Amino acid sequence: MIKIAIDAMGGDNAPKEIVKGVELARNEIDNVEFQLFGDSTQINSLLSNKKRIKVIQSDEVIKMEDEPVRAVKDKKNSSLVMAARAVKDGSADAFYSCGNTGAILVAGLLIIGRIKGIDRPGLITTLPVINNDTGFTLIDCGANADAKVVNVYQYALLGKYYAEKVLKINNPRIGLINNGTESDKGNKIHQKMYQALSQNDDINFIGNIESRGLLDGITDVAVTDGFTGNAVLKSIEGTALSMINMLKDGIINGGFGSKMGALLLKDTLKKIAHKMDYTKYGGAVLLGLRAPVVKSHGSSKAKTVRNTVVQIEQIITSNFVGSVKNYFSNHTDEMDDIKKGEQ
Amino acid sequence: MIKIAIDAMGGDNAPKEIVKGVELARNEIDNVEFQLFGDSTQINSLLSNKKRIKVIQSDEVIKMEDEPVRAVKDKKNSSLVMAARAVKDGSADAFYSCGNTGAILVAGLLIIGRIKGIDRPGLITTLPVINNDTGFTLIDCGANADAKVVNVYQYALLGKYYAEKVLKINNPRIGLINNGTESDKGNKIHQKMYQALSQNDDINFIGNIESRGLLDGITDVAVTDGFTGNAVLKSIEGTALSMINMLKDGIINGGFGSKMGALLLKDTLKKIAHKMDYTKYGGAVLLGLRAPVVKSHGSSKAKTVRNTVVQIEQIITSNFVGSVKNYFSNHTDEMDDIKKGEQ
């Protein structure tokens, strides 16, 4: 039985949508047990039944605006910290929260801890691609804004195992986001990243890629430093949302003909909305830790929570963490060489 | 009379669409004289009349795949280099090409040269915003991938003058692209950029901004290093294009009802296409040089060429370069202080 420790108080719609999503997942998946940390009175009143669900009382909540390091340090009885601690103690296999992103990352790093050999964990998100269903996976989406060559090198390996094990992509293509596709493109550090990645025979490195082609499926995994990755992720999200809003506004303000047109186009528009809905891939995962640490957006509803539970179940079942541990324990010299080359 | 030196051989549709676009602009704008550099036989055969158009023979062409620095050095009789040289010699006021981007930047920097006090020029592009017509202006879009604090500081000033003088935005808002809006966000260099920008009373600095909100009009000018700017620009372009293609595919493959729907929605879809069409703002401008150096996409058609000529006329008429020269000649100490602070 897989055990997932869930911060039931994190996010704008907690605990209601968290509990609802957990029940949806529980009714579909047999091999998962849920540990819900939070206000037990509230949670119990929301549950329709407690089959494979344990409710654990926590007296504090880390708020969205709390300073992450201080919050994790000070609020030891918060649902977020208690859920992370359950993983650390071995009573759960994964930690999931829709709460304060910074606090989730800090709790993952400080409480659950890194896999030996990994210098900095990386945050990944899987986003849609027009012509396939496996999307593309972006790492790092913002855990590490000051990335060194060795960090990005490790992200490529983490991305490879995630795409292979969890998304079931055979020999996934790994591309480095750069300002052109030629091998000498980019600033000094990105040129060094290219060199390091092209020397690793364990990954299917396809070279430099431009962010323009990501939604067209030019790669399975896009690796980048956390600063660029964050800007790319938010640019894609913002543009997609703005275009959908423009279409909605155009339909609403376009008179009868336009409303009729939208009605006739309903299936097409629904398909596009479904295609662009990246919550179907679950949440963002902090990779490189001893157990999966997963966050989904603060505004998540039950469906996203359900999808994220499915994702976590796949991460655990695939033994992603075991594969990564195995690789890094056998490649310590390789990492040392890259660090030396950087100096 | 404003004189624009144009590389008539640059781009995928040269010289035909360049000549066509120049004639469109010439028929609308009275105060511009055009100097077309290229194969004079071809160009002359395409021109319907030569009013305010001079054709200057050039025997070479810089190709899209040529290595920029070598091409500018070796192909002195190319249309691109000759057009840039016309500006350097004072026989033209601006240089425009749809050709090899790298070669345009190199020719601008090496032949036309920087304004005194500006360390590195920055490439700007104006992109659409849903709820206004002035869009937002992104600087640097990729001229300088290894940006220092002083470069981004200067981009903010260049962006301010461009938005104020050319786009006629009163007291334009300047935001720094970062991975969060709080003042301490970002990696070390972005934290220093924030500090420097917040100390300049000559700009309306609104602080850190996230790329998610750019199309929603959160700022008039978005400043960033050229690596991030390039990734943001290409992410926005790629996402917008992918979504439009998805809609088109959905309509084409959606049967009769969907085609009827599209017909009824035609005006709405046209409005969105017009809104997202950023060629209406002209091309990308390399700012910080002694004269405007403007490039538009290699695939540009006549309408984009026409729009870019309008943009160049506005840059010259507004005396953008004069205002920038004036600011930087009076603020040399300020730039020195920022460079000292960076060490």
From TrEMBL, chains A, B:
Which Gene Ontology CC terms are recorded?
A: cytoplasm
Q: Which Pfam families match?
A: FA_synthesis
UniProt-listed HAMAP family? PlsX
Q: What is its EC number?
A: 2.3.1.274
Q: Which gene encodes it?
A: plsX
- Major enzyme class: transferase
* Reaction equation(s) it catalyzes: a fatty acyl-[ACP] + phosphate = an acyl phosphate + holo-[ACP]
Family (UniProt): Belongs to the PlsX family.
Q: Which domain of life is it from?
A: Bacteria
Which keywords does this chain's UniProt record carry? Acyltransferase, Cytoplasm, Lipid biosynthesis, Lipid metabolism, Phospholipid biosynthesis, Phospholipid metabolism, Transferase
Q: How does it assemble?
A: Homodimer. Probably interacts with PlsY.
* Keyword field contains Transferase: yes
Describe its function: Catalyzes the reversible formation of acyl-phosphate (acyl-PO(4)) from acyl-[acyl-carrier-protein] (acyl-ACP). This enzyme utilizes acyl-ACP as fatty acyl donor, but not acyl-CoA.
- Quote the protein name from its UniProt record: Phosphate acyltransferase
InterPro entries, per the entry: FA_synthesis (IPR003664), Phospholipid_synth_PlsX-like (IPR012281)
- What GO biological process term is on the record, naming one? fatty acid biosynthetic process
Quote the subcellular location field of this record.
Cytoplasm
**GO molecular function terms listed in the Swiss-Prot or TrEMBL record:** phosphate:acyl-[acyl carrier protein] acyltransferase activity
Q: In which pathway does it act?
A: Lipid metabolism; phospholipid metabolism
